[in-house]
Automatic annotation (TrEMBL):
<dbReference type="InterPro" id="IPR000485">
    <property type="entry name" value="AsnC-type_HTH_dom"/>
</dbReference>
<dbReference type="InterPro" id="IPR036390">
    <property type="entry name" value="WH_DNA-bd_sf"/>
</dbReference>
<keyword id="KW-0804">Transcription</keyword>
<dbReference type="InterPro" id="IPR019888">
    <property type="entry name" value="Tscrpt_reg_AsnC-like"/>
</dbReference>
<protein>
    <submittedName>
        <fullName>Lrp/AsnC family transcriptional regulator</fullName>
    </submittedName>
</protein>
<dbReference type="InterPro" id="IPR019887">
    <property type="entry name" value="Tscrpt_reg_AsnC/Lrp_C"/>
</dbReference>
<feature type="domain" description="HTH asnC-type">
    <location>
        <begin position="1"/>
        <end position="49"/>
    </location>
</feature>
<keyword id="KW-0238">DNA-binding</keyword>
<dbReference type="Pfam" id="PF13412">
    <property type="entry name" value="HTH_24"/>
</dbReference>
<dbReference type="InterPro" id="IPR036388">
    <property type="entry name" value="WH-like_DNA-bd_sf"/>
</dbReference>
<dbReference type="Pfam" id="PF01037">
    <property type="entry name" value="AsnC_trans_reg"/>
</dbReference>
<dbReference type="InterPro" id="IPR011008">
    <property type="entry name" value="Dimeric_a/b-barrel"/>
</dbReference>
<keyword id="KW-0805">Transcription regulation</keyword>
Length: 136
């Protein structure tokens, strides 16, 4: 019975004991008592929810050019402070690094790029806004 209750909670951690009882053909008081016991004994360690993913409508690819020779650890520190960065890599070529910035709005993306540009180690950036993914 506990395995069935746990499976129901994995499917929907917010389901009430009454809803699980209906689903499993059990008494609500039995389900409630078993959930409390599973929680007390540590079998259930937390209840969670999943949220719908917000679409990321704005994306930019940013080439980063540093003043002098920036180390990888310096670049990591700079990028670690930035919100909305989904990818950050060092590259061979003219740029020192390339980052991908994704946000729900172009304002989020723009704000992240402006914050990057304020770093004293950053000489300049070159930004390409993404319009359409060709692989999906």
């Amino acid at each position: 019975m506990d395995d069935l209750i746990l499976a129901a909670l994995r499917d929907n951690s917010r389901a009430s004991a009454a809803a699980i009882a209906r689903q499993l053909g059990l008494a609500p008081s039995t389900v409630k008592r078993r959930i409390e016991a599973l929680n007390s004994e540590g079998t259930i360690t937390r209840f969670t929810i999943e949220t719908a993913t917000r679409p990321l409508d704005a994306r930019a690819i940013v080439e980063v050019y540093c003043r002098g020779n920036a180390s990888v650890s310096e670049l990591r520190e700079i990028v670690a402070e930035l919100p909305h960065v989904s990818l950050a890599v060092t590259v061979a070529g003219a740029a020192d690094a390339v980052i991908v910035v994704e946000g729900a709005t172009s304002a989020q993306v723009s704000s992240t790029i402006e914050t990057l540009r304020m770093s004293p180690r950053i000489e300049r950036t070159r930004t390409s806004m993404v319009f359409q993914d060709l692989l999906t």
